[in-house]
Structures are given as structure tokens and as C-alpha cells.
């Protein structure tokens, strides 16, 4: 219920549901008004009160949804985050080289500033999970710091020679620092980039 997708999809689907669910009730009320023309004023008042109640419920729901959406967006990462990391990758890596990122939602900011590289996971990690569930589980394990010496898997299983991580993935960065084949090549206040080197090379 707190996810952005729910906030995006709830209003139109709630409106569609309300239209289908309430149309028989509204039709019944209108039919009742036509049959009881002598009590037209009372029936019209009852219909007006019903519509007002429905309007209040809808207004409250929509207002709550938009307030939650605004709060969620205001609390999100700034658009300029990772601009420096993206610029470094563009200037220092071959065109089309794959970047292993530790969080799927870093993709929009990276791609905005840098289309020079390709990225492991973008838009939604479900695509990777549907493509290869085992590979997805492996990615999750690496990003959570559950894999010792992750450079081998990053290079051989994911085909990536560069890793970009935010500084909140402490378990991963700890494993990366212990891996002699992951060399830190860039660090800022919000990101770190590692180059994956071949085992046994400098």
C-alpha cells in the first residue's frame, strides 16, 4: 500500500470500480424517483445526499492519495544524484560496457546522465527475475553482501566490468573492499565505482 505503483494505479482503478459498483444503485434510485413522482422532492433530496456522501468519500480518498504521492516524491533522491558517477563512467569506460548496479532504482538517474554505458537492471527488477530467476537471486545475494569475493560472479555471470553502488549498501561495499579484484576507481558523497579486474592481473 505504500509503494509508488499502488499510488499511481489506485485512483483510476478506484474510479472504474466505483463506476461499475455504484451504477446499479444510481439506476435504482433514478427508477424509484420516476415511479414516485408524488414524493419527488423527498426522493431528490435523498439522491442529493447520497451523491454528496459519495463525493465526500471520493474527495477524501483522492486528497489522501495525492498527499501521500507528494510526500513520497519529496522524500525521493534528488535528480542530480549520481551525476558525477555517471559522468565518470562515460569518460572512463568503453562505449556499451555493462555496469553492475546494486540498486535497480539507480538506473533512471544513471541513464539520464549517461547513455554511453549499459546497465544490468533498469526500470523494474522483475524483468531480470522473469528472464532468469537464479541469476536474479544471485544479484540480490551479491548486493546484500552475502557473496564473498563477488568480482568473479560480477564478471563471469553478469558480464560487467564496472560496479556502481550507493553508499547505503554497506554490506556489499564491505565485501567489495575485501575483494582484491574489485578496485575502487571513483568515490563521491553518494556513490562508489569499482572496476573489475581479471584474476591475477594488476
Describe, in plain words, how this protein is organized in 3D.
With 202 residues, the chain is α/β, with parallel strands linked by helices. Helix content is 57%, strand content 11%. The protein is built from eight helices and five strands. It has a five-stranded mixed sheet. Helix 4 links the parallel strand 1 (98-101) and strand 2 (118-119). 20% of the residues are buried.
Topology:
Elements: H1 4-35, H2 40-74, H3 83-92, E1 98-101, H4 107-113, E2 118-119, H5 126-131, H6 133-143, H7 151-156, E3 162-166, H8 170-177, E4 182-187, E5 191-196
Parallel strand pairs: 1-2, 1-3
Antiparallel strand pairs: 3-5, 4-5
Helix pairs in contact: 1-2, 3-4
Please summarize what this structure is.
With about 200 residues, the protein is of the alpha/beta class. It has eight helices and five strands.
